[in-house]
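request received
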Amino acid sequence: MTDLGLVIELTILALAIFLGFEVIAKVPTMLHTPLMSGTNFIHGIVVVGAIVVLGYAEDGFTKAVGLVAMVLATANVVGGFVVTDRMLEMFKRRPDERRPDDRRDEPS
Amino acid sequence: MISDPDVVGLLYLLAIICFVLALRFLSSPRTARRGNWLGGLGMAVAIGTTLLLDGISNWELILAGGAVGTIVGIIGARRVKMTAMPQMVALFNGVGGGAAALVALAEFHVADGRLASEEVVSIVLSALIGSISFAGSLIAFGKLQELLSGRPIVFAGQNVANGVVLLGSAALGVALVAGLEEQWALVALLALALAFGVLFVLPIGGADMPVVISLLNAFTGLAASATGFVLDSTVLIVSGMLVGASGTMLTLLMAKAMNRSVANVLFGAFGQVQQAVGSERVDDGRTVRATTADDVAVQLSYARRVVVVPGYGLAVAQAQHDVRQLAELLEQKGVEVAYAIHPVAGRMPGHMNVLLAEANVPYDQLKEMDEVNPEFAQTDVALVIGANDVVNPAARNDPSSPIHGMPILEVDKATSVVVMKRSMAPGFAGIDNELFLDPRTTMLFGNAKDFVVKLIGSVKAL
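response:
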């Protein structure tokens, strides 16, 4: 991957910190758990690191470590996504809408 | 294959934008689900781009690892009951932390001593934080799953052990950065960090696990971000840090909802104080009054206003559907029914809203704590189903109680209180509850679902 240079990377990092704080500042209490689960899914991005390590691995040690990392990171991504989606599915339903496949997002 | 680094960079930027919007959407009930799907899109773009990078090989290993992880993830996430969601989040968080630590280890091994010092710093941070998150999350899982005691676990010499582990890992980390580029040192650092993760979470009580999981979630984000510096990957740096920052924010918000400081949660050794207080508490002659379902049915049917206070016990007994049925029956008899939801009812903030929504309880009957507390004085019966700590008046009255200062649902202000409970066992925070000794309180001991079903029968028969 391109080497951006440390200073630029640190600049990006600092901006990401402020963005992370700002973007969820107004979350209501009832969404704390789904939001935690959603951010839990997003840090599954470490799977990118696992793919790079495993994809460029040459010796047995790196392959073994990379493979375990790959399994763990994929479980994080897939599990995190499905759990979050299951939680949020509960919020979507209204008492007068009993059909589980109703995909209307706007509140009636 | 994508060989143009600009194209790779732009695709990763697209993924980052998806993640930022995902977080934004996840903060509002109306758009939350879309937010998660948008995150999924971002993840798909990031993974797809990475797989197409020039020179990626070992396809059979990548596919095998991905397949196993996918199967484990789907089975785990699909089969888990709604009540066990929090520990599942802890588990998925832990494996993410473990993955970050292993990526750091592999990078260190591959570089074989040819690392710039800032890269070593990133590797050390990623290994350290990732391992703490992994081990800590597993302990949190064990506590919530009740494989371990929910009470704070403390032992003699704990501070010494913490000190040794912390100093040892700090020394190794400094030595690595200073130029000791030996693999054993990093492996030893990983081992010490794992031990620290265990020691760090053991003394924290089960009721505080949500805050801890949220914090460890932020940790995993930081660990992922640190690996990004070694791999020179903007998508890792930014997405990891987004989670690190928003996870920290969320931890603060959760602690605030429980009216505690994060420091108090982490280092308060919750419950320790109470053991001393508990032993002093003498039997003052007040006793718990047990009652029967028939009596409660009469009480409920002739009430003007009933407030149901659901807790984790209701969720465990899977009684939410029966409770809704009971509420509908009472409403037909002209009783006004509402549900009082404590911000941390269940095991995590918002957990109870999810469970009741699953049972199709109408939204307008769910009342938040601040809204419902002033109304308890006009409430004839407060029906507490499997809740304990969130209705414990000690939070208001007893400064020595570990939950002192936590906002509670003031059910003791209602004309009468009926508590359904499996036994007299203390709640998740591991402390006694004065409410049960109050002369206006009657108790139904047993499975909440059985009692609610009995209540439905009795109310119908009236």
